[in-house]
Task: structure prediction
Amino acid sequence: MQEIGYDDDVDLDLCQAIEKITGEKLADGDVDDVFDVILMWWRSDDDDLIDGLVDAQVTLKEGGVVWLLTPKANRPGHISPAEISEAAPTAGMHVTSTTSAAEDWAGFRLVGKKNYS
Result:
C-alpha cells in the first residue's frame, strides 16, 4: 500500500492500524512501484484533486483501489463529497463507498470506472 499526501495532520493511529493489519509498512509517495491500494490524504488547499487522482493511478495496479482521505466537515481542509463525486469521473474513477476513517478524516473508496467491485 502506498501513502500519498502525508503531512503532520494525518491520523497516525490509522496508519499504524493499517500497517498492523497488512503486516507491511506504508510505502512513501515517491516509491516507484505498483500497488493494490493507494492511501491518499487530500485537503482543500492541496493541488487540483483531479490531477492528484490521475497521478495516484500511475502506481495503482489494474483493479486497485484508491482510498481518498479528506478532513471531515467543519474541519480545516474539508472537501465536499460533491466535489469528490465530480472530480472522480473526470480522473477516470468512480466513488464506490464512504466511511468515517478516523476522528477527523472521512474516507472515499475509488476504483477505475470499469472496476466496480
Observations:
- The helical segments are 12-22, 49-56, 81-90.
- The first strand starts at residue 2 and ends at 4.
- The beta strands are 2-4, 35-41, 60-71, 93-100, 105-112.
